[in-house]
Structure formats: C-alpha cells, structure tokens
Design goal:
58% of the residues lie in helices and 0% in strands. The protein contains 6 helices and no strands. The longest helix is centred in the first third of the chain and has 34 residues.
Length: 224
C-alpha cells in the first residue's frame, strides 16, 4: 500500500514565502544602504589624521610670541594642548587668564599692605572678604566683566585686536598710547604682558595653595 502523501497546509506555505520575501527585501535594502554610504564617502573630504593636525598646529606655533629663557627658548606646551585646540584660542585664553591673575594678585596683596576701606569688608583675609562683600557689588562686577567682553568682541569684528597684534589698532587703549608706538615697542609691550600674566598666574596659585595648605609654598608665612 502506497504511503499517503503528507499535505502541507497552504497557510504554512504562504508564511514561508512571506518570510523569504522579507529577507530578500531586507538584504536588498541593506546592500543599497551600504552602496550609498560608499558612494557618499567617495566624495566626502578625507578626515585629517591626528598627526597631520599636530604638524599643522606645530607650524602655527613657530614664531609665536612668548618664547624666552624661562621656556628654554622653545614653545612650552607640556600637555600638548595645541593638538586639540586652535592656537589662536589658546593664546586668547592665556592672555585673559593672565590679565585676571594680575588683577587678582593686586587684590590679594592690597589689603594686607595698604589696609581696607570703610565699609562692610573689614578683613584682610582675601577668602573671608568674599562673603562680606555686598551682593550688589558682585552684580556690578559681573556686569562690568560682561561689558568689557562685549567691547572686546565688537572691536575684533571691527578689525581691532585685544591680543597685542602689532599691525592692528588696540581694542581697548585707555591711555591712547598704542597708536603712538612703533612695531618694535608694541612687540616689547605685548611680550611683557604675556610674561607678567604668566608670573601672576603662578603667583596667585601659590597664594591660594598656601592659604588652604599652610606651609605648602616655601617663603610664604601661614595665613598670607
């Protein structure tokens, strides 16, 4: 006796055909997608290797103002920040921090040497003075800083410079002396500003370290 044929339900056949169709469709879409990516990357600019970017920034560092005996006659960049940020941005940040540090150093020393003015701030402790200052003073200080920044950036759009570029007009020149100087004198003044700013950053960091960790800085007494 012949064995009975096994009949496969029509619904099962339809399901298998549907799955195969979906797989073929999905495979086709993936192939088209990968082809599109390959075609797009053929026209996209090649990404610059990190080494090439490093060499580019190294070229920008050549001749950068600030090299001297204290930096062993070469660019001082132990953390290699120039690899990851534009050199112009780093120079602007250095100048901004140096100028702030010079003001902070004077502010730290002034009450200890000269004394305090009449008012709520009657301490020579620079940290304690923060909490004694009236809140409106801080508001005025923040507004003043914001105004100075706005003046700087507006002047930069006008072609002026606030980083000591000798061939440009100064963004802020209270004494009206920058325009009277020749290129050599401007370069000398700009170099002094950078070096004094660096010294002030080291100085104010030393004052703060000695304040919070007494004796951590040789030559500074406790509580200075």
């Amino acid at each position: 006796r012949k064995a009975a044929k096994r009949e496969i339900p029509v619904a099962t056949l339809d399901l298998d055909q549907t799955c195969h169709s979906l797989v073929r469709l999905l495979t086709m879409k993936i192939a088209l997608f990968l082809t599109a990516i390959a075609g797009a990357s053929a026209f996209a600019p090649a990404s610059q290797p990190a080494r090439a970017a490093s060499q580019l920034n190294a070229g920008e560092l050549e001749g950068l103002r600030g090299v001297g005996p204290e930096t062993a006659g070469k660019i001082f960049d132990p953390l290699e920040l120039a690899k990851w940020a534009p050199v112009e941005h780093l120079r602007k940040a250095e100048l901004a921090n140096g100028r702030s540090a010079m003001l902070a150093t004077v502010g730290w020393l002034f009450p200890k040497v000269v004394g305090t003015f009449d008012g709520p701030v009657d301490t020579t402790d620079p940290i304690a003075a923060f909490s004694k200052a009236d809140p409106q003073w801080w508001a005025q200080f923040i507004i003043f800083c914001g105004t100075i920044e706005a003046v700087k950036y507006r002047a930069e759009f006008e072609g002026k410079s606030y980083t000591g570029e000798v061939d440009k007009e100064a963004a802020i020149d209270w004494a009206k002396q920058w325009g009277k100087m020749d290129a050599a004198k401007r370069e000398d003044i700009a170099m002094k500003e950078i070096k004094n700013g660096r010294l002030a950053m080291i100085g104010i960091a030393s004052f703060a370290a000695n304040y919070f960790i007494p004796g951590s800085v040789p030559g500074l007494s406790e509580g200075f």
